[in-house]
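discrete fold record:
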Amino acid sequence: MITTSALTKRFGSVVAIDGVDLEVRDGDRYGLVGPNGSGKTTLVRMLLGLVYATSGKIEVLGRPVPKQVAEVLPDIGALIEGPAAYPYLSGRSNLALFDAAGRGGSRRTRRARVEAALERVGLAGIDRRPVRAYSLGMRQRLGLAAALLRSPRLLILDEPSNGLDPRGIREIRDLLVELNEAGTTVFMSSHLLFEVEALCTRVGVVDQGRLVVQDELAALRAPTGRVVVDTPDAERAAALLDGRVEERTGQRLVVREDDPARLNARLVADGVRVAHVAAEHRSLEQLVLDLTSASSDTAAAP
């Protein structure tokens, strides 16, 4: 669905994207993560022909971008940064204008398409108030509705949960899973790591313009070779395990061991009460922290 080869973008002396080889496969729910200023939005904009590469290649839906971007745009739904709209018009009127500007949509079915898109993003009961009166979350939902007007094969989204409350984030996540299961490939950039972890099946991590890792999320979160134990007999457990306890916080022990069942059996056999035992998995947050440098939002010390 999306491939790039040695993709590079320079703004003067600044290298914003540095030799990125991206691969988004048919059916993926792909999450692009990294610190603020790492190049995520620049990369997303390049995929849509909004920013031209300095060097390298981009293919989207099998066509070169930006050379043949007009041929694939009807099959792509996109939400990039803040969704644009005419502030003095209603959401419905904005969507109708957006739909009229695109190719391949029948005028006779436009109203039905607009209503269906509004319903899918939770704005079915929207009134006639102008967009300038919308909250940030409502504007984000409206932008997503615009991306869904033509039942796209590929969704390219930049921070789709921006401005949404926790219930709204969950609703949009459920919608994206539903769309993906119906055949739409989802590619999104986000700084909400918990949301990417809950939604995505494949992840790419960007740092200072470079793609530092790209893999299945399940593979990246494989067991660490340690086991987490919760026991009210932490002192006895630590003494019994003799040097294999690498971390201890209250009743929680992190033990160097790759078989939770074996460790549990040993502790119980020696009379240690075990409330919980499980293999430790590295979180996406820890992975990103380990692989990336500081955010561009971090102020330098005076």
Observations:
- The chain is about 35% helix and 25% strand.
- The chain has a mean pLDDT of 90.
- The longest helix spans residues 166-181.
